[in-house]
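hey can u check if this looks right to u? its 252 residues, i copy pasted from the old doc so theres a chance i mangled smth
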Amino acid sequence: MMLADFAARLAFGLAVAALAAPRRSTPTPYFRTMCLVMLGLAVLATLAGRSSDASRGGLGAWAMIATAAVAYMGAVAWGMGWSRVGTAATAAVAGLSGSWLAGLALAEGGPWAFNAASRAASGSAMGATVAAMLMGHQYLTAPSTSIGPLRRAILLMAAALAARAALAAAGLALASGPPTGSASATAPTWLLPAMRWGMGLIAPAAAAALACKAAGLRSTQSATGVLYAGTALVMLGELASLILSRAGAPIV
């Protein structure tokens, strides 16, 4: 179920980032690419969560199947230049995947509102970082494009990381002690929290600052390279957070 959770978070974050991108100054192929990535993530979440979802009547699987179908419609709409239909489909992906994540938090019990908000922040951090990296790619084929969309994507990445850090700090405050379970049995108790904060939050924040500086100099290739590193770091940090949450720490 961990893989399905991870994929659904990323699909949600990408949809939110796509909705935040400026329509007029962003190349249309960018939105089509985003929808295709969301389609693949929704299919992955459906396949990965199929066995665990059977005990809940398969409602989650149908929600992710609907997410995949809407993401495909969005990719077709953006490819045809139908921006209004594509925007509506992207919003539907955000709503469906967000509902699936909220349902998963409710099924797990515990502080439902915190877990749902934390999943949304996790997806937003990953999605904004991946979206900024994909935005940088647009300048390889269209170097004359306005630098505004890239800078806006990087600022969104920074804001999402800040929100994620705030909720992770709240999770640490809620924790009554070090995580217990299989994760702490095979590694020092400080290792995963250090990975989560150092690699998953602090280093990506530094990458966002460097990418913003490079974008200001219109060195888009440098900015994209930095964002590649930021994407890897954010995903490693969120994987560490998932392992910690399964080991008993309320950092979801």
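DSSP finds ten helices and no strands in the chain.
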